[in-house]
Specification:
Chain B: Residues 114-250 form the Pseudouridine synthase II N-terminal domain. The complex is a heterodimer of chains A (468) and B (363). By secondary structure, chain A is mainly beta. Chain A is 3% helix and 37% strand. In chain A, the strands form 7 sheets. Chain A has a 4-stranded antiparallel beta sheet with strand order 3-2-29-28, with no helix packed on it. The longest helix of chain A has 9 residues, at 2-10. Chain B is 36% helix and 23% strand. The chains are: A mainly beta (468), B alpha+beta (363).
């Protein structure tokens, strides 16, 4: 057809289709080529582009959201942009922001600071950013202050606005790897496989595992306390930090704690601060613990016999099923009806979460629990409907794989790599794109497959993997 | 039940039914074809009898005697047969089909289409007959019910209109693509739509009602919004070709083809949509016996189809009172229907939602 059209046009014949010639129209919508066909237009001669190779590795990424001012996000240009006239300072990051840092394997959020650790055997293994008023991120010599005559005291930075490498006193850095990181209110713990636990920060209650020194100044302190694995009956596998206490889980399932005990956080039955890691007794005697969790003053532990133990503060009714008082000084078994195997427990500031093997999330405690604004407080666990996590008739395989608790916020990761958060949206820490409180699980749009999440008081760090 | 009498068939041919539209056929020609077939078929049925005309004839010409039909004048002499006029029925030759033409023509069937398909797309097309059909179609449009498409695509090519019919603009490699990568990309692409879907429901998200509806899966856009994806699933992958199942609300064919193009870009390759087939439109499915092919469109089939849809639509979906009641939702859940739709909130603050609600209430 087109060849005929070209020939007729060449001979200057006015070509109209039947319809238009009958109606005496002068224009027609018969296809006439209006451009010159070049080599690129012909399909066979077009070049084939290769954008990506077959064996490309997936890259891991870190996303952060929440309060930018403390430096916990590790982005300097958000609260302090270079060009203030053009870009206004941003105090809250409501949606995930990509933090450019490579090879991070473990993330931990504390109260206004975050610690990122890599698995590599380099000299520098750990990076930290955020509040450093108690030296919880280590000693970083400040270059701004001038030393007066006669003074030898050197100052450290009080706020680290970008991820800074933390110097740790390794005996042989090339032979050891970081296994776990944990952050509390003003202290942090870094667990390595050969050299034990490095504890930095505030030790006013013995949470770093060393003797309490009266009148110790924690600001600009370079003290890093090392607790070797030999101190425990078997090597430590996991460290968890509560607000002012620390928990250590060994390979054989024993649990040790140290720190503040006024609310029974250490679970040792005494109210004085405990400076040395001591084994927990109570209902935990002879039980092998597989998972521990704590964020504020309440702690939960999961055993291999599918039992849950709780101790610590019960101000908000987290342990109201076992005790009527506001704290449980010794670990007590929580009498929940467990029909299925429980995979994870998470204890937050005012509420606790539970995850079983079929992917159901159960919540109890006080606050924005995730079952709408009407449910403020629950003594016994209540199940959050699966449809809120993306389960529907179209996706019957969706279930939750991992849960984490912050102070007032909660996060859940599904098996498809989607992140759902809910709770109190303090300074945009939920990452949902707005500053409103979220009363039921809402999907966080990172654009990547989410692998790990850590919730802090007013910020959140997300570890994800690229799609390809 | 087979209808053989044309006037009853014409009365019954009012409502909504579904037809399979082949690709390459424009909607206007599809409507004309259906109309033409119906007209052709209804003219073969038994028509109404020819009309009779009343003529006054002298009594002598008829076999009738005085006093049989109409007793007119008793004062006249009884034996005057020549001058006495009697009314008789006579066939009205104006009304014969050979004079007037066939009883039914295209104007007797007012046909309208539901959400239309592209020229190049194929699949289910909902049509409405007469004014009742058009009303039902308009109500269905407001309900924002989901539609399901089966999309066949090919990796490695990029075209101007994202489909197979326009010229190829770019080529790229596709051997790095695997099923896992595609599912990851699909979950990420759906996330934004999922959140937008919930926010467009017009409900305050910090209310208990929003939580209640979201936990049942019924938080869907109520007011008119942009196209929203509900679900995307990969059913078959045979490189470089693939088949996707897409469920969406208020979409257009170009929107779906563009999504295929975006999937290709996310996978660091290119993709075109080679075939787009609509498989489900609210209650109508393509595998139903009563979804008619062009050749099967005749009066009785269409009447059966309209009856069937009346049973489904009227009971649970269209009637305002039952639609907003909890019982209808339970009924649908029991019937394991694929339709999920929201309940509006009377306390909602958005203007568009209130307007839509009032409009539905008045209709």
């Amino acid at each position: 057809m087109t060849n005929i059209v070209r020939k007729l046009k060449k001979w200057n014949v006015l070509l109209l289709c039947n319809k238009h010639s009958q109606l005496n129209h002068h224009k027609c919508t018969v296809y006439t080529p209006s451009y010159k066909r070049t080599v690129d237009d012909v399909e066979e001669k077009q070049p084939v582009h290769k954008f990506i190779g077959k064996h490309r590795k997936r890259v891991s990424r870190i996303h952060v959201c929440g309060l930018t001012v403390t430096g916990a996000l590790g982005v300097l240009k958000l609260p302090l942009p270079e060009n203030k006239l053009r870009i206004p300072p941003k105090f809250q990051q409501n949606y995930p922001y990509h933090l450019i840092i490579d090879d991070i394997s473990h993330i931990a959020c504390g109260y206004g600071f975050s610690i990122l650790a890599s698995k590599l055997k380099d000299q520098i293994k750990v990076w930290g950013c955020g509040i450093n008023t108690n030296s919880q991120i280590g000693f970083h010599k400040s270059r701004k202050t001038k030393i007066k005559k006669g003074e030898t005291h050197t100052k450290s930075y009080q706020y680290l606005m970008e991820p800074t490498p933390i110097p740790l006193p390794f005996k042989d850095a090339g032979k050891t790897r970081v296994i776990d990181v944990a952050c509390g209110r003003a202290h942090s713990l870094i667990l390595t496989d050969k050299e034990g636990i490095f504890a930095m920060g505030n030790n006013a209650f013995g949470q770093c595992g060393r003797q309490i020194i009266e009148g110790e100044v924690y600001e600009s302190s370079a003290k890093v306390h090392r607790i070797p694995h030999e101190r425990f009956p078997s090597p430590v596998v996991k460290v968890v930090c509560g607000m002012d206490h620390s928990l250590f889980l060994t390979q054989t399932g024993e649990l040790f704690s140290c720190g503040w005990s006024a609310d029974g956080q250490t679970g040792l039955g005494i109210a004085e601060p405990v400076p040395e890691p001591t084994q927990l007794r109570g209902d935990l005697d002879g039980v092998k613990i597989t998972q521990v969790s704590s964020f504020a003053d309440t702690s939960l532990a999961l055993s291999d016999t599918n039992d849950i133990f709780g101790w610590g503060s019960s101000e908000y009714g987290q342990l109201a099923c076992v005790t009527e008082s506001t704290q449980a000084m010794l670990p007590t078994k929580l009498p929940f009806d467990r029909q299925k195997k429980i995979i994870q427990v998470a204890a937050g500031g005012t509420a606790c979460l539970l995850l079983n093997e079929s992917g159901d999330v159960w919540v109890w405690g006080y606050g924005i629990l995730g079952k709408g604004p009407n449910l403020e407080n629950a003594v016994w666990p209540r199940r959050i409907p699966r449809t809120l996590f993306g389960f529907s008739q179209f996706k019957p395989d969706m279930h939750v794989k991992q849960i984490k608790c912050g102070l007032g916020s909660f996060a859940a990761i599904t098996n498809t790599g989607e992140l759902y958060t809910w709770g109190k949206n303090k300074s945009g820490c939920l990452g949902i794109g707005s500053a409103r409180d979220q009363y039921f699980p809402w999907k966080v749009l990172t654009g990547f497959e989410v692998v790990d999440v850590s919730c802090g008081v007013d910020h959140m760090v997300v570890k994800s993997k690229s799609l390809l | 039940m087979v209808v053989t009498y044309a006037p009853t068939a014409h009365k019954l041919l009012q409502g909504v039914f579904a037809v399979y539209k082949p690709s390459g056929v424009a909607i206007s020609s599809l409507l004309r074809e259906v109309q033409g077939r119906l007209v052709q078929d209804i003219n073969t049925l038994e028509q109404r009898p020819q009309k009779q005309m009343i003529l006054f004839k002298p009594a002598s010409e008829t076999h009738l005697t005085k006093g049989s039909l109409l007793d007119c004048d008793t004062s006249e002499p009884s034996n005057d047969k020549l001058h006495h006029m009697v009314p008789t029925f006579v066939p009205d030759w104006f009304d014969h089909p050979l004079v007037q033409g066939p009883r039914y023509n295209n104007d007797s069937f007012h046909i309208s289409a539901g959400h239309t398909l592209d020229v190049h797309a194929c699949g289910l097309q909902v049509l409405g007959l007469q004014e009742q059909g058009e009303e039902i179609l308009q109500k269905m449009k407001k309900l924002n019910l989901p539609r399901r498409y089966q999309v066949k695509g090919q990796f490695g090519l990029a075209s101007l209109t994202f489909g197979g019919e326009s010229r190829i603009v770019g080529k790229s490699t596709w051997d790095h693509i695997t099923e896992e990568k595609i599912t990851r990309v699909l979950t990420v692409l759906q996330g934004k739509h999922r959140n937008a879907c919930m926010e467009a429901s017009g409900l305050d998200l910090s209310s208990q009602q929003a939580y209640r509806l979201a936990s049942k899966g019924f938080l869907r856009p109520y007011a008119p919004t942009d196209s929203v994806l509900i679900d995307m699933k990969l059913t078959l992958l045979k490189l470089p070709e693939f088949i996707l199942d897409i469920t969406c609300i208020r979409e257009s064919c170009i929107f779906i083809r563009k999504i295929i193009h975006q999937i290709g870009l996310e996978l660091r390759s290119n993709a075109i949509c080679t075939q787009l087939q609509r498989q489900q439109d609210a209650v109508f499915t393509i595998h139903d016996e009563l979804t008619l092919l062009g050749k099967n469109v005749n009066v009785n089939n269409v009447i059966d189809s309209i009856n069937h849809t009346n049973n489904i639509l009227r009971k649970s979906v269209l009637k305002r009172k039952r639609y907003f009641a909890k019982t209808s939702v339970k009924m649908l859940q029991q019937n394991k229907s694929d339709i999920l739709f929201p309940e509006p909130s009377k306390n909602s603050t958005s203007e568009t939602v209130n307007k839509a609600f009032d409009h539905l209430a008045s209709s």
